[in-house]
Structures are given as structure tokens and as C-alpha cells.
Amino acid sequence: MAHGKHGLKIEADDSLEQAMSVFAAAIADPSRASILCALMDGRAWTATELSMVADVAPSTASGHLTRLLNNGLVVCLMQGRHRYYSLAGTHIAGLLENLMGVSVQIRHTAVTRAPVPLRYARTCYDHLAGELAVNIYDALLREKWIVADGSSLTAAGKAHFTEMGVVMDPRSRRKPCCACLDWSERRFHLGGSAGSGLLSLFETKGWIHRTVGYREVRVTESGSSALPRWFNLNS
């Protein structure tokens, strides 16, 4: 028995196609999909909380979580007597975000009908997504604070992020930046360490407000003033 890259338990002679099928089946159940979508807010949830989101009994939710754990989609964190579940990483969040985009396109023939608050600003695991995030990404390109493909900050971008107070771990193996295709806007927003650092800063500064259990992000009064100033959004 061997373990695949994402924790899948597959026989050594299984084909890639079989492994993909097992992985896809773990996501396919509507209740498990609901659980995964809830975890896209980047926080850790208890099994009881997730059972309420999925509208299933706690025992049923535990079974779903075990399947997601076994397939490397979520991880379990112990805090005293409590167990908390979160997505296994940014690679899983990226996969789910892409699935959402494909699903919306198929169902609505490329016409976005996402709720307005969700479309304007939401979390994509540990960074910001939605119309606001896309506008910020466009500003980063316009001001030449990121390179053309969004893979890294320029010298001017690093200076601007430092001035803002964005904290990025220089020892992290994660990409400093990456262009994530936004499923509702069909354009790019900022991911990677820089995207995560921005979201953390926005929360710390009180520029955005997040409600536990929801991906929607509300821009506060101070954020409405600060964000256009820092990113020249009105230019």
C-alpha cells in the first residue's frame, strides 16, 4: 500500500486515473462539498459546527470528515479535548476555487449569479478574493508592484508592502506571489505569501470584518478610506 501526494491510499500498481477517481469521489458528496466550502474561510471548525453547515447529524459529519481526512483534503488539529478541522493547505483551496468557477460557468453559461456580497469580497482560504481583490491585483500591475505574471513582487512592490506593514516570512517555501483566477470575476487576484499577508494586515488594521462561518468579507468605514489610498483604486 502506498500513499499518494495528497495522502490518498492507493495500491502501487494503481493508475493515475484510478487515483484521480478516488480523489474526486471524496469531493463528490454534497455534504462533503458543503463542509469543504465552509472551510474555505481559512479557519478551523469543529465537527459539530460542520454538521450544522452540512445539515447532517454529528455522527454523519464525523464519517464525512474521516473520509476527507483519509484522502488528504482536511487536517485535524487537537486543542485540549476539542478537535478542529481545516483544509489541508493552499493547494486544496486552489482546487476548490477552480471547481467553483467551472461549476458556475457550466450551470449559468458564464453569467455570474453569485450573491453580490460574496462576489464583491470574500476569502479564498488565506487571501482575499472577489471584485475588490481583482481591483487590487490590477492596481499592483498598474503601479508595477508585481511582475507581469504575478509571480513575485518588484523592488517597488516590496517597499510598498513594507511601508504598509505587510508581514511575509522570508523562510517560507511557499510562493511569494501567485495569480489566482477568481471564479466570480474570471480575472486574477493575488495569492501566495503576499496575498496571505495582505489579508492579515487588512484584518489587523480593521479595514475588513469577517464573520465566522461565512466567506463574505465586509469592508469597514476605515477600510473604504484606506484601501483606495494605498492601492490608488480611484485612478
From TrEMBL:
GO terms for biological process: response to cadmium ion; response to lead ion. InterPro entries: ArsR-like_HTH (IPR011991), HTH_ArsR_DNA-bd_dom (IPR001845), HTH_Metal-responsive_Reg (IPR052543), WH-like_DNA-bd_sf (IPR036388), WH_DNA-bd_sf (IPR036390). One of its GO terms (molecular function) is lead ion binding. It comes from the Bacteria. Residues 12-107 form the HTH arsR-type domain. It holds the Pfam family HTH_5. SMART domains: HTH_ARSR. Signal peptide: none annotated. This is ArsR family transcriptional regulator.
